[in-house]
Amino acid sequence: MYNGITIHTTKAKHHEIIDNKYAIGFILDIEGNKIGFTGDTGWDFENNGSIAKPFIEHKPKLLIAHLGSIKSREFKYVEAENKDERNQCFYTHHLGLLGMAKLLDSTKPDLTIISEFGEELRNFRKDIVEGIGDVLKLKCLPGDIGLHIRLKDLAIYCFIDKKFIDFNQIGVYDKQGEPNISFHKEELNHEKFNTALERKNRMRAVPLSDRIRGDPNN
């Protein structure tokens, strides 16, 4: 423990010569608020998904999981006739769709931030994450610069109302050509939204602490 923070390490499987031995994820316990980070890992299908065990044991309410990319062979999983064929469908270096689904279905965190998208997925982050969440019936959001989470209750900063709100009420704006994803309360007033988006584009370099200073909700 260091300054009230306990760090639990987890095994990561990157399926490379050096990384197979040294790659790790971790779980932070900050005064009872637990946050899991998968790190760069594939689904450990050789050991029946043993990488999920620490996350199941410690039960982090917030899980940050790296997707990496999506491989075409993953879509052949439903057609596979045996375990060996199914294992061949997994993306070995990262979770991909199959590993992500297996991990989240095993751990069922309150909130999952899916991050580290390959550049080829840049314009599909919102659709991919919402699809995963819909199938698994879990709250999932794409990770990006500008996502601020209050650890004590996992509330998320809304760039329109300029305050933290319940993560279950958060929507995602991810327009092609915009540099970053924006997070906002799902019920939108379009005039307020457009005004806030213009303001956000002007204030990208302003620290969050300055943006929320004086807000009694924080």
Quick structural summary:
The chain is α/β, with parallel strands linked by helices and 218 residues long. The protein has 7 helices and 11 strands.
What this model shows, in words?
- This protein is of the alpha/beta class and 218 residues long.
- The chain is 26% helix and 24% strand.
- The protein is built from seven helices and eleven strands.
- The strands form three sheets. Strands 1-2-3-4-5-6 form a six-stranded mixed sheet. It has a three-stranded antiparallel sheet with strand order 7-8-9, with no helix packed on it.
- A hairpin with an 8-residue loop joins β10 and β11.
- The longest helix is centred in the C-terminal third of the chain and has 13 residues, at 190-202.
- The protein is globular.
- The mean pLDDT is 87.
Average pLDDT for all residues: 87
Shape designation: globular
Beta-strand segment tally: 11
Helix content: 25-40%
Proportion of beta-strand residues: 15-25%
Structural class computed from helices and strand pairing = alpha/beta
Low-confidence stretches: none
Widest beta sheet: strand line-up: 1-2-3-4-5-6
Summarize the helix and strand pattern as letters.
Answer: EHEEHEHHEHEEEEEEHH
> How many DSSP H or I helices?
7
Keywords, separated by commas or semicolons:
7 helices; alpha/beta; 24% strand; 11 strands; six-stranded mixed β-sheet; three-stranded antiparallel β-sheet
